[in-house]
């Protein structure tokens, strides 16, 4: 929309800036020429900054809408599966039956990691945090495939994307097995993506693991609901790393690192640790009071979201799965009772209503993962596994766009102005 313009008056300068419209969501003011006029914009935390153009995922935070390639997350979670969602994110269309079969087959046949990857694990302490091992081993994949990668070739980019999506469950399960001292379990091609992951996690040589269809469906849903989420911290990290031309394994390792923090993907682990700390239903009010106290840094983990300000549509679907899994497994865990009661109390508390704080996807996914026997310190790895397809789709999209520039923000400098240096002896 060339004649749609914003006018900025700054000092004695008047600058006209084009307003660009997407297919949905806020219009954006194109400020790219502002630097040459002597101004930068200032937006730490990216509260109102569009960092790129993208056609992968759309979020309307006020209405609680999440669309992947235009399809609603509710429809996808109900009627699709993770493999189809991966195809859509990477290829910008739904697959035909044959394309779905071929894609599934390709992913299945790339699940094995090079046997030398086993050696990397031996370098870690046996109690290393699984996210630390995941960061390291994903980055180390670059050492196997770096020479096989021309990132300007879309076919080669997709090949790396398939490798990453396929091998991530294998690496995540290896992190777990290494922690608990059990032998690594090789992937099995006769199982679905979620079943194969569960089998690599829980199977032991002496005994076959029986996979519950309710559990594998819930895990597939967790993967689907975490597959992508627009320009969040880790995706933006992957894009920024990729903008320099870095190889995809290094970029995804950067994404894993960014996801680790408790304000982002680390929230599911932090949430369960918080439930542990609360310990019993009668202590919930004390923690609710702490969350409201401005002088206490404590926050209710698994509550709130930067973009969703009414509800998190992923949490609505996840909540449904959560109750399904708890009923199927017939679990009586005091921690899960604390979670359910915390959800009830927080949802009826005016403070949380006023600040638009509600349980997010990580609150419920953490409860499901705990119920199916996945240890808390593995939760963020599972988020990383599921988000890999989103990261790599954004990386692929970015490199497909002509005129792509290295990401290089500027700053508001508040240090010393230039001053004279005196030699140390003076
Ligand atoms: N518990 C208590 N108070 C909170 C919480 C919380 N979880 N989250 C926000 N607030 C309050 C905060 O104190 C502030 O109050 P005031 O206006 O009086 O200063 C107000 O709500 C706004 O908070 P903010 O930090 O400015 O909001 P933000 O949009 O920058 O932060 C968030 C979003 C997700 C980082 C934050 O809500 C939070 O720390 N939540 C807990 C961590 C969490 O569950 N993260 C997972 C997000 S979903 C998965 C993902 O996408 O990674």
Automatic annotation (TrEMBL):
Pathway note: Carbohydrate metabolism; tricarboxylic acid cycle; isocitrate from oxaloacetate: step 1/2
Stored Pfam families: Citrate_synt
Gene3D superfamilies linked to this entry: 2.20.28.60, Citrate Synthase, domain 1, Cytochrome P450-Terp, domain 2
Reaction(s) this enzyme catalyzes, per UniProt: oxaloacetate + acetyl-CoA + H2O = citrate + CoA + H(+)
Active site: 305, 362
One Gene Ontology term of the molecular function aspect: citrate synthase activity
UniProt record similarity statement: Belongs to the citrate synthase family.
Annotated protein name in UniProt: Citrate synthase
Gene: gltA
């Amino acid at each position: 929309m060339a004649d749609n313009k914003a006018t900025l008056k700054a000092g004695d300068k008047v600058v006209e800036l084009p307003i660009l419209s997407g297919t949905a969501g806020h219009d954006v003011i194109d400020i790219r020429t502002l630097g040459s006029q002597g101004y930068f914009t200032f937006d730490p935390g990216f509260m109102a900054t569009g960092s790129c153009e993208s056609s992968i995922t759309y979020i309307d935070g006020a209405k609680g809408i999440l669309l992947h390639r235009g399809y609603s997350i509710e429809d996808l979670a109900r009627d699709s599966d993770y493999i189809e969602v991966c195809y859509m994110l990477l290829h910008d269309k739904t697959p035909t039956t044959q394309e779905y079969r071929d894609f599934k087959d390709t992913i299945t046949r790339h699940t094995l990691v090079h046997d030398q990857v086993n050696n990397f694990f031996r370098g870690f302490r046996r109690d290393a945090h699984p996210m630390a091992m995941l960061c390291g081993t994903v980055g180390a994949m670059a050492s196997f495939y770096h020479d096989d990668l021309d990132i300007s070739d879309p076919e080669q980019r997709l090949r790396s994307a398939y490798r990453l999506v396929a091998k991530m469950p294998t690496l995540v399960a290896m992190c777990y097995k290494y922690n608990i001292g059990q032998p690594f379990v090789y992937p099995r091609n006769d199982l679905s993506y979620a079943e194969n992951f569960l089998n690599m996690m829980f199977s032991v040589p002496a005994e076959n693991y029986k996979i519950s269809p309710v559990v594998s469906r819930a895990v597939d849903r967790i993967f689907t609901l975490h597959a992508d989420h627009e320009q969040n911290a880790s995706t933006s990290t992957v894009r920024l790393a990729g903008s320099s031309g870095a190889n995809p394994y290094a970029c995804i390792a950067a994404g894993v690192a960014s996801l680790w923090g408790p304000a982002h993907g680390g929230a599911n682990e932090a949430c369960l640790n918080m439930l542990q700390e609360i310990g019993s239903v009668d202590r919930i009010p004390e923690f609710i009071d702490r969350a409201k106290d401005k002088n206490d840094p404590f926050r209710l983990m698994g509550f709130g979201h930067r973009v969703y300000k009414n509800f998190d549509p992923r949490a609505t679907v996840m909540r449904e799965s959560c109750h399904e899994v708890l009923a199927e497994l017939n679990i009586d865990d005091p921690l899960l009772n604390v979670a359910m009661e915390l959800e009830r109390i927080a949802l009826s508390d005016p403070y949380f209503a006023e600040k638009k704080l509600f349980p997010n996807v990580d609150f419920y996914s953490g409860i499901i993962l705990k119920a199916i026997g996945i240890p808390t310190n593995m939760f963020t790895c599972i988020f990383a596994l599921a988000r890999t397809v989103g990261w790599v789709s954004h990386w692929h999209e970015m490199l497909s766009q002509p005129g792509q520039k290295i990401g290089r923000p500027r700053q508001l400098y508040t240090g010393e102005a230039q001053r004279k240096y005196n030699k140390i002896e003076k």
